[in-house]
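May I ask for a single protein's sequence together with how it folds?
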Amino acid sequence: MKNVIILGSTGSVGTSALEVVRNLRHQYKVVGLSANSRWDLLAEQINEFEPKSVSLVEGKWLDDLQKKVPEKSVRIRTGKESVCELIAQEDADIVISAIVGAAGLPAAIEVIKTGKTLALANKEALVMAGNIIMPMAKERGAQILPVDSEHSAIFQAMMAGNRNEVKRVVITASGGPFCNHPKEKLSQVTLEEALKHPTWQMGQKITIDSATLMNKALEIIEAKWLFNLDTTQIDVIIHPESIIHSLVEFCDGSVIAQMGLPSMKVPIQFALTYPHRENGNVQNLDLAKLANLTFLQPDMDKFPALKLGYEAAKEGGTNGVTLNAANEVAVQAFLERKIKFTDIAKLVDKVIQKHNFVQDPDMKDIMLADDYARKETKKCLL
């Protein structure tokens, strides 16, 4: 039996992770869970999986949670530090980090410090601090396994050859709900339209990121750090069917693709069982039924967020953390109907241009850049 901690267990990736564990229950034991505020779903998870400890960041819901779980059956921590305390004190073989946004960075660093295996769905950690996380993981002997479907696909495809034989990687993008939408009409799209993703069921923030292609911008930066790639080795292609999750081209011209129906359970399970594979509870891929697979070049004029991602990856430094923080604030403003859809990338670009760039940031520089970007983006909203 392997012990597992799932951070962000009440979100879309977290609940999928628990489905995977449910299917492999003879091999995995959940010893820890964390949630931000969804105490009611967390209570259901506690009662089913019986972890030793949980973290509920929003402590105001503690009484409600305690009423729903058997007395003294689980240790409940609250507050911002509770997630890192959970990681440090619980004996786990692997930690799945599915925390949304910048909040996942401290948790990722804590997992690496303890030497546990980090199954990373929180791309923002590497976007913000890849220059710190990757060397730290190497020093501590902590393994980082990608859970993002695209980066899991790259990781799997790279097994077809040696690392020094990789020529480039190709990250696929569904194109979101506005793949075929006229550029001149994007400023008029509604929140409801932006939240209607054609192939994936995800949380609101990542769904909007998919609509702007900001998710690909973040994935470019993540891939750079995770696989030690130059920005020129990372391409993005629009693939509306979301069947090919990414591709790797080798120096001899061979291109290896990882394919499957859209399901986060596949990359989650691969991270859990790596380097082996187990029977999965997912639908089989029927290529004859699909009949066609489509590929399109992304339009960076139509989706400027993608261009911002390439620029941030190339220039490095504090550009990644600034891009991420400004985007989080801008997306929230769009979700609250305060700005137009097209204003998201404009705000992010404006804040990146204004911020105090640091080429080789330490954690203090990273947190200062994050704080500045959030405050500056909010100022721009006034």
Observations:
- The longest strand covers residues 28-35.
- Residues 152-270+282-316 form one domain.
- The CA atoms of residues 121 and 148 lie 5 Å apart.
